Each structure stands twice: as structure tokens, then as C-alpha cells.
Amino acid sequence: MAQTSRDSKLQLVTRHIRAFPDFPCKGILFRDICPIMKDPAALTAVMDLFEEHVRQMHPQVDLIVGLDARGFLFGPLLAQRLGAGFVLVRKKGKLPGPTVSVVYNLEYGQAEVEVQEDSVSPGQKVLLIDDLLATGGTLNAACELMTRQQAEILGCLVLVELKDLNGAEKVKPHTVFSLVQY
Fold first, then answer.
1. How does pLDDT run across 146-163, given as a tens digit for each residue?
2. Which of 91, 98, 108, 126 could make a disulfide contact with 151, Cβ separation 3.0–4.6 Å?
3. Which residues, 6 or more positions from 27, have their beta carbon under 8 angstroms from its beta carbon?
4. Is 114 exposed, middle or buried (0-12, 13-18, 19+ CB in 10 A)?
């Protein structure tokens, strides 16, 4: 993809991210990606940009791993384009059958995510995807799940990264590719 095409796609995506001050609580500036989902051209631009990055940086990918819930929006589309499988990382208690889980700390409490035990085989090359990287807790927990499954983590993909919250630091040594940074 030529640089001008990439730039125009990034501009289209950025124009479709809305900011809502004081949501869900005072002092938070919420980045809303819903307008991207409503606009076929913007959604196609997101998928084109993710696909271009993956094909350039990770020519062999076995699985795209989507984080609950918005990673489920972009993950299957990207997996289909790449000819890869798709795996769900869900909140505890949402998947049938034997699962593997990780507990992680939130600002006020704890949460737990899980995958089906047989969803990832040792040595499979995986990319994790989500809509937003803030503090990195959920993405880091998903990386830990993939490590427990003995997957080879190629990196992480996010649509929006909130740089001031240093989430990428939390998932190191894994890399994070973000389309838009605030």
C-alpha cells in the first residue's frame, strides 16, 4: 500500500473516532469506535491497515486471538483475510468445556479471562487483537494465557492506544501495533 493511500486510510479512521468527555465517569475521555463500525469505508480502511501491517511484519500467522468483546469485531475479519484461525479470549465463565484462565488486577479489584483449553496448540504463531489499549491489564493477561498455552506470540494489534496510560509497557516484551494513538 502506497504511503498516500495509507495516510488517507488513517485519516478516514481517525475522523470516525469520537471523543466523549466524562464517560463513563468524570475525568475520562472516552474514545468511541462505533462510527467506524457504521461506515463500510472506515471499517475496510481499518482492516486494510491491519492486514498490510501483518503481511509485512508477520508473514506466517496461525491464529488471531481476539479479546472480549471488541477484539471479536476485528479479529475474525482479519483472520479471514489472512487465512488464519480465530480464538476468543473471554471473561471467566463464558466459554463451554475445559478452559485455562488468568486472574489479573484492575484499578479497583480483579478480573479473570479464559480460553478453551484446546484452542491453541504449542508452537502456534498468534497475534492478539483488541479495539483499545489503555493500561494494558487485559492485553497482558491474554498474552499470559497464550504463553501458558505455549503459543508463539508475534505481537499485539489495537485500533486505539492511549499512550499516556503506558499500556504497551505492561505487555512487554511483546510489541504493540496501534493504528491511532492519543
1. 999 999 999 999 999 999
2. 126
3. none
4. buried
Phi, psi (deg, nearest 5) at residue 85: -85, 170
* Helix residue spans in 16-39 (DSSP H): 34-38
Report d(CA 51, CA 46) in Å as an integer.
9
Give the phi and the psi of residue 151 in degrees, each rounded to 5. Answer: -80, 155
Place of cell 487485559: 138
Residue type, 88: L
Q: How far is CA 80 from the centre of its chain?
A: 16
Measured in degrees and rounded to the nearest 5, phi and psi for residue 74 equal -95, -30
Q: How many angstroms separate the CA atoms of 114 and 132, rounded?
A: 19
Q: What are 38's three cell numbers? A: 457504521
The amino acid sitting at 14 is T
| Radius of gyration for the chain, computed over Cα atoms and rounded to the nearest angstrom | 16
Known catalytic residues? 70, 107
Q: 135: which DSSP letter? A: S
Instruction: Please say if the pLDDT value at position 1 is more than 80.
Output: no
Cell numbers describing residue 146: 497464550
> 150 φ, ψ to 5°?
65, 30
